[in-house]
Design a protein that fits this description.
The chain is α+β, with helices and mostly antiparallel strands and 482 residues long. 24% of the residues lie in helices and 26% in strands. Strands 3, 4, 5, 6, 7, 8 and 25 form a 7-stranded antiparallel beta sheet that branches. A 6-stranded mixed beta sheet has the order 10-11-12-18-19-24, with helices on both faces. The chain folds into 3 domains: 79 residues, no CATH class; 93 residues, Pdz3 Domain; 263 residues, 2-enoyl-CoA Hydratase, Chain A, domain 1 (Alpha-Beta Complex), CATH 3.90.226.10.
């Protein structure tokens, strides 16, 4: 196979860089195509499904001039990126941004946010009319100062009723200020209650640990941790939360991931290590890249694409609970790194999943920048485009990772808008089921419980936060690309 743009990795490792790239890489793309050139070359190198996209094939373009002629047909990087993706049913999660600073902020838990995290549902099956319901309020946010709480319902924004065609512009548009028009549900009807909540979006960093407490029930000391994002810069805080649970001598753990759309693979590995502790050095998960990259790692550095249980964060010991069973609460918003924790733990300990079927995101991405090695160093200063393409599938230690249709709960239970309860309260429906299962003091139904309204979307999903990513490509690969 003749390679013009994807330099053979072994040649790079053995220092034949100049010989390998002199034929074509000394011919630069014109300034008008710089970003498109970055998009194609990044996708050509990293995309998980390169072998299924004809325009990413190695023999597709004879030289840079031929590639340039192809790139000229796309008037924006976004259109090119879309054209280079496989079928949308297979790749639901790759994306591109025109400002990587905003993307980096999201991965650190920093967004432009008023603090209301909400779900959206249709008013009736198939209806174009939708309503929002508050899932939780972010502490320290603008909403935290207002009279709005979990379970509250809104049907309009600035007096305009919400529909499937206008909700994005009303709730997620450029305007930082809007007013939610609240309503009550009575006999299936949505009745405006005259309450209007004016909100302002600000730059907000969310601590993903929303609730951390111990519930005593008879001889059981049950730790309850609601964790809403795998945000790497909060790993130390997560470890401290586990340290608190450990110091209080918990005997069981309920991990609430119902609103957790995912995040860092490294953080997921650390969380699994906090739950356990007896598997340090053993395989938690394995990464499967496209054929060329995977073949390279299998030959040169197989450990680079294996995530192992660990006992440290840097030099800090992990506070491990050494549990052999964990109870995990899920919803149809639980995705990616949340699913990785469930799937990665299953070969090692007993995982009891309570709630709804998860999203089914068994693939991960990495941020690609317009730089010589596609990493964050030496970025092209002329623009801020970056890509977040799917680059790997992830499986557990026994090779299972085919949960693209979601992970099925052991005890199905959907969250009802009308009976949401208070998070962390023993009577909150999902937590109540978990406690009953732990203590054996309550009857647990194995019948699927239906939600009272058809789910439509959520604030996390629209904001693009259903992600599973690695912080950077494994070291061996980045060095090979430099």
């Amino acid at each position: 196979m003749k390679t013009y743009f994807k330099i053979p990795l072994l040649l790079l490792i053995t220092l034949f860089v100049l010989q390998g790239c002199q034929d074509n890489d000394d011919v630069a793309a014109p300034a008008t195509l710089e970003i498109q050139d970055f998009v194609w070359k990044g996708m050509n190198q990293y995309y998980l499904w390169t072998d299924e996209v004809a325009n990413l094939d190695e023999t597709r373009f004879a030289d840079q001039a031929s590639l340039n002629n192809f790139l000229k047909d796309f008037d924006s990087p976004e259109n090119l990126f879309a054209a280079l993706r496989v079928d949308a049913n297979k790749d639901r999660f790759s994306w591109i941004v025109d400002d990587y600073l905003e993307l980096e902020g999201q991965f650190q838990g920093t967004t432009n946010n008023n603090g209301v995290e909400f779900g959206l549902s249709r008013k009736s099956t198939g209806s174009s009319e939708i309503f929002g319901f508050v899932r939780y309020i972010i502490p320290g946010s603008n909403a935290a100062t207002k009279d709005i709480k979990r379970g509250d319902v809104f049907t309009a924004v600035n007096g305009t009723p919400l529909t499937v065609s206008n909700y994005q512009s009303l709730l997620f548009g450029a305007n930082n200020d809007y007013t939610l028009n609240m309503a009550d549900i009575s006999g299936g009807a949505f009745v405006p209650n005259g309450k209007n909540i004016a909100l302002t979006k600000t730059v907000l960093t969310e601590n993903p640990i929303l609730v951390n407490k111990v519930i005593t029930s008879g001889s059981h000391k049950i730790g309850y941790l609601m964790y809403n994002a795998f945000t790497a810069n909060f790993d130390t805080k997560l470890n401290e939360a586990f340290g608190s649970l450990k110091a209080q001598g918990i005997t069981e753990l309920v991990l609430d991931l119902r609103y957790n759309g995912g995040g860092s693979v490294q953080t997921a590995t650390r969380l699994a290590s906090m739950i356990t502790g007896q598997f340090t050095g053993k395989v938690f998960a394995k990464q499967q890249w496209n054929k060329e990259i995977n073949d390279y790692f299998e030959r040169e550095s197989p450990e680079s694409i294996i995530n192992i249980f660990t006992d440290k964060i840097g030099n800090t010991p992990i506070n491990s609970l050494n549990l052999t069973k964990v109870y995990i609460l899920t919803s149809n918003s639980s995705a990616s790194a949340s699913e990785l924790v469930i799937n990665g733990l299953k070969p090692h300990i007993n995982v009891i999943q309570i709630g709804d079927v998860t999203v089914g995101k068994n693939v991960g991405s990495v941020t690609l920048y317009d730089s010589p090695g596609f990493g964050p160093d030496n970025r092209n200063p002329k623009h801020r485009y970056a890509m977040q393409p799917i680059v790997l599938k992830i499986v557990n230690s026994v090779g299972f990772g085919d949960y693209q249709n979601g992970l099925q709960p052991d005890f199905p239970q959907k969250e009802n808008v009308s009976t949401m309860g208070v998070l962390g309260d023993v009577n909150e429906p999902l937590l109540k089921t978990a406690i009953a299962k732990i203590t054996g003091t309550g009857r647990v139904s194995t019948q699927k419980q239906r939600a009272d309204y058809e789910d439509f979307s959520s604030s996390q999903a629209v904001n693009g936060l259903n992600q599973m990513y690695i912080e950077k490509a494994p070291e061996g690969l980045l060095k090979a690309l430099e």
